[in-house]
Amino acid sequence: MTRPAVSIGQYAIAGRKARNDDSFGVVVPDGAQALTKGITMAIADGMSSSPGAKEASETCVRSFLDDYYCTHESWAVKTCVGRVLTAANRWLYSQGQALYADEGGMVTTFTGAVVKAGLAYVFHVGDSRLVLIHGGECEALTKSHRMTMTRGQDYLTRAVGMGPDLAVDFRQVPLADGDVLVFTTDGVHDFLSDNAMMGLLGAHDDLGAAAKAIAEAAYNAGSDDNLTCQIVRVDHAGSADQAALHIRLAALPFPPELSPGMVFEGYRILREIHASKRSQVYLAEDVESGLRLVIKTPSVNYEDDPNYIRMFVREEWVGQLVSSPHVLRVLEPARPRRSLYTLSEYVEGVTLDRWMADNPRPSLETVRALIAMLVKGLRALHRREILHQDLKPGNIIIDSAGVLKIIDYGSVRIAGLEELSKPEDLPKLVGTRDYIAPEYHTGEPITPQADLYSLGVIAYEMLTGKLPYGAGFATAREVRQKTYIPATTHNPDIPAWVDAALEKAVAKSLTKRFDALSAFEYDLAHPNPDFLTRKRKPLLGSETRENWRIAFAISVLLNAILAALLLMRR
After folding, report:
1. Closest C-alpha among 34, 33, 53 to residue 45
2. Angle at Cα 392 formed by Cα 387 and Cα 393, nearest 5°?
3. 244-345: CATH number
4. Where are the domains of the chain?
5. 3-class SS at 298?
6. Percent helix, strand, coil in the chain (nearest 5)?
């Protein structure tokens, strides 16, 4: 992957006002954050009628430029900025009321952008402005949240600190090397046309000089407000370079074939736990500490597959990122690695599919308790904007104390890292047929509801020993054709309202499915009034009953013919 790079020019002046309430800034981080988080830039204009205008604009810009880099790397840019701006808005609103006894005490406009992986993520509230100059054309990336009233007076309809809630405009714009982003406050763009601004920009090689020329031109045109212009030229937009990624991850060689008794990088191999065409899993012991742990090694079949390597390395990152008693903990190697492998805690127990085989008809209370633990594990992942995408009984372990843990992160989707990947480099289909949600086949958006679907299938299977649609979906056509099989068909002891909760959890349509894990967990344990009036579905649908009637009539007719033939022979 390649980092974005920019050149910057800035100029601000109070103009004909006594003070300058504008604030602005750009942060180009060092090291990996330039790649994973990108470059941030912003401008803000404190509302002139606000007594705390300057403090409001400074606080908003500083919060964005500083706090954004403190948000989690797994989160998408929109999530990170949304949380930062929400926090800034609530603080400014509360301080405005506390210090000035006025809802307009600390109010500011805000326009910010994050340049990352060839895109500009734009966030905007108020009447400051951002334009993109590309190929000699000027495009406004923001719209003004301002209303003109009688007598020519203007009022902001949206701003940071104006109220307890904040609505932020958001858009994503592709960038190319050489593009220019121009941030201005209304003291500039209200008095200077885009063509005039582009002409001044083209007349100056130095971006700082160009920013000054633009502000001075607006002043000379009669601007009576503060004037701020910030110019950011995109020297390199940044990109997800698959070849560079492959080189970086393939730096560690694949391990040799391991066997019991072998000492591998300070770990004694005790036994093989599992092997597939994609990986091998071993129980091992740290020779120095005696700690038992699990080693997972990649299959040599994928030694030249960069996507496979990326997903394998991602497993370790996710396991160290998420903290929950119901998510398997991945460990940092005690010594420098010489080859590619991952370490995780050793959980003595059985997989859920083995447990289901040993407990074919668990009580509703037991199933609810297990689902509650799964919900906690999934929620820990989803809070980091991570989708598991392969939730199934074989990827769940129940330890000797009855604690359930989600394992295997080989198929996870991480919002913050997806932004760094090209669409063609992402897996087209992940997970296991019987448990993956229909939207993986139909092309609908993949959201946390996909993991919720898998959870619903597992709950159904624990209670019935079967699957809600027979075998899972292999194609979009099967999604259209198959219908839900009531759980009561397989287990008549299941209450109708529990069956209704299961049916909603595994609904093929996203609009009919639960929209939150907690809602499914609650309805599985508490009778939903909407479900109580539902009658048990007949074991046979109307079409099936009609087919049986026809078959029965034909059978009767054939028996009558056979009887007549027998009588004739006599």
Report:
1. 53
2. 140
3. 3.30.200.20
4. 5-238, 244-345, 349-532, 542-570
5. strand
6. 40, 20, 40
Angle CA(469)–CA(474)–CA(480) in degrees, nearest 5?
60
Residue 368's pLDDT is what?
A: 97
- Cβ neighbours of residue 521 closer than 8 Å, sequence gap 6 or more: 368, 371, 372, 375
In angstroms, the Cα distances linking 441 to 227, 392, 525 are 53, 18, 31
Answer for the pair 67, 87: CB distance below 8 angstroms, yes or no. yes
The token duo for 46 is: 């404190």
Query: What is the C-alpha to C-alpha distance for residues 84 and 242, in angstroms, rounded to an integer?
Result: 31
With the CA atoms of 28, 33, 39 and 41 taken in that order, what torsion angle do they form, in degrees rounded to the nearest 10? -80
- Vertex 142, ends 27 and 129: CA angle to 5°? 60
Task: Select from 250, 248, 251, 311 the least CA-distant residue to 279.
Answer: 311
CB of 368 closer than 8 Å to CB of 328: no
Q: Quote the pLDDT of residue 371.
A: 97
CA distance 310 to 72: 20
Tokens of 341: 């492998």
The closest of 59, 20, 63 to 40, measured between CA atoms, is 63
The answer to which of 358-362, 411-415, 554-558 has the lowest mean pLDDT is 554-558
405, 62 in Cβ contact below 8 A?
Answer: no
| Coil/strand/helix, residue 259 | coil
Q: How far is it, in rounded angstroms, from Cα 493 to Cα 503?
A: 16
- What local confidence, expressed as pLDDT, does residue 126 receive? 96
Please give the helix or strand (H or E) that residue 147 lies within, else none: strand 146-148
Contact 35, 238 (CB under 8 A): yes
Length of the chain in terms of residues written: 570
Q: Residue 532: is its pLDDT beyond 80?
A: no
| Fold of the domain spanning 349-532 | Transferase(Phosphotransferase); domain 1 (1.10.510)
Q: Which two tokens stand for residue 227?
A: 């004037």
pLDDT in tens, 164-220: 999 999 998 888 899 999 999 999 999 999 999 999 999 999 999 999 999 999 999
**Of 567 and 398, which is predicted with more confidence?**
398
- Say if residue 436's pLDDT is above 60: yes
Integer CA distances (angstroms), 310 to 245, 342, 417, 433, in order: 8, 13, 11, 23
Output the CATH code of domain 5-238: 3.60.40.10
Helix (H), strand (E) at residue 519: helix 517-525
Q: What's phi and psi for 194, nearest 5 deg? A: -60, -40
